[in-house]
dTTP/UTP pyrophosphatase (Peiella sedimenti), 193 residues
Amino acid sequence: MGARAPLVLASASPRRLELLAQIGVRPDHTAPQDIDETPLKGETPKRLVLRLAEGKARAGAAAQPDAYVLGSDTVVAVGRRILGKPADAEEAGRMLDLLSGRNHVVLTGVAVRAPDGRTASRIAEARVAFKRLSDEERAGYLASGQWEGAAGAYKVQGLAGGFVRGITGSYTAIVGLPLYETRLLLEGLGWRP
Ligand SMILES: Cc1cn([C@H]2C[C@H](O)[C@@H](COP(=O)(O)OP(=O)(O)OP(=O)(O)O)O2)c(=O)[nH]c1=O
């Protein structure tokens, strides 16, 4: 047996590191990948999160081919719209207006590339019921700044937890890294801590 292969988390998200730590997985390092997250014309949310998760894993592997590389991507799908991270407070407000009083789906794609080049990926999702926001709640949430860096302009693990009436599916998919699927992928490709 050769030396143990390192694990690289191809992400800038501290939440993803925390989630991995929760199941005892500690990447040797993180390598954020700055890839274009714009959906292709007609692309479904599922295809988008898979493409981006695989793209992040592949880009990370280009820099470190001897490592296991983990990439993931989260979007919110409401009706036929796909919501990524808002660029500013104005866009965040528009996203909150779309979510207010409706159900939506959060999807996270996760991909692992092994040192031998095999890649495996999965999608996890959650259905989220969001309360109708009053003008005061909307303004207060925008002022909190917690919308920054979150798909759909909210973080269920913060103040917005108080807006969520119910969740069906994977909670960790909403926070950015579905732990069940991630564990299956790492184990399936032979990664060992
Ligand atoms: C809906 C929701 C999203 N999010 C976060 C998870 C993801 O980090 C983020 C979606 O953005 P992503 O583009 O998936 O990830 P990122 O930009 O944070 O990190 P990287 O691309 O480098 O891996 O939204 C929450 O933390 N809580 C929530 O309730």
Q: What stands out?
A: The first helix runs from residue 14 to 22. The CA atoms of residues 49 and 109 lie 5 Å apart. The pocket of thymidine-5'-triphosphate is lined by residues 11-13, 15, 32, 37, 73-74, 76, 85, 106, 149-152, 154-157, 174-176 (CB under 6 Å).
